[in-house]
């Protein structure tokens, strides 16, 4: 496996990974999968900002992806980002999420980011929160019932990592 910057040729696979989570789960609150044009704009925007958009490449196949995007649009938030990590079905539990998060955090540090926020849908699994805790994220709050998808109300858990104090 190689973690590398995403390229436009990866976006079809990235879109397919994400579409699975949009249609089959509540871990994202999107109800319609983004178009290829949406993904192209996201890649261009994050590249222009110097923020990481990475893929896990396993023998030429995109097993998953991760990126960091601005947390909020107001200028005072410019040193804070939100991380995103998705693995394709069949690629979870193999360490790829850990490798992607480690690389995204390194890319964020290189970009001068100070705070990384994780917004995790409480879908009944602790896997994402546990992964983030392993990298120094701490619990920052819970928003109860803020999402409604597939006939159920879903909470989000907020976690935060201060890169200025993080070791390792």
Shape: globular
Strand order of the largest sheet: 1-2-3-4-5-7-6
Helix content: 25-40%
Number of domains: 1
Largest sheet: 7 strands, mixed
Helix and strand composition category: alpha+beta
Task: Determine the CATH topology.
Answer: Aminopeptidase
CATH superfamily: Gcn5-related N-acetyltransferase (GNAT)
- Gyration radius, rounded: 15 Å
Distance between the termini: 21 Å
Mean pLDDT: 96
* Name of the CATH architecture: 3-Layer(aba) Sandwich
Number of helices: 4
CATH classification, class level: Alpha Beta
Indicate the proportion of strand residues: 25-35%
Enumerate the spans where pLDDT stays under 50 for 5 or more consecutive residues.
none
Count of β-strands: 7
Q: Which H/E pattern describes the elements?
A: EHHEEEHEHEE
Descriptive overview:
With 168 residues, this protein is α+β, with helices and mostly antiparallel strands. It has a single domain (2-162), classed as Gcn5-related N-acetyltransferase (GNAT) (Aminopeptidase, 3-Layer(aba) Sandwich). It contains 4 helices and 7 strands, in the order E-H-H-E-E-E-H-E-H-E-E. The protein has helices at residues 11-24, 36-49, 96-110, 127-134; strands at 2-5, 53-58, 61-70, 80-87, 115-121, 138-149, 152-162. The protein has a 7-stranded mixed beta sheet with strand order 1-2-3-4-5-7-6, sandwiched between helices. The longest helix has 15 residues, at 96-110. The protein is globular. It starts with a strand and ends in a 6-residue tail after the last strand. It comes from Streptosporangium album. It holds the Pfam family Acetyltransf_1. Residues 1-164 form the N-acetyltransferase domain.
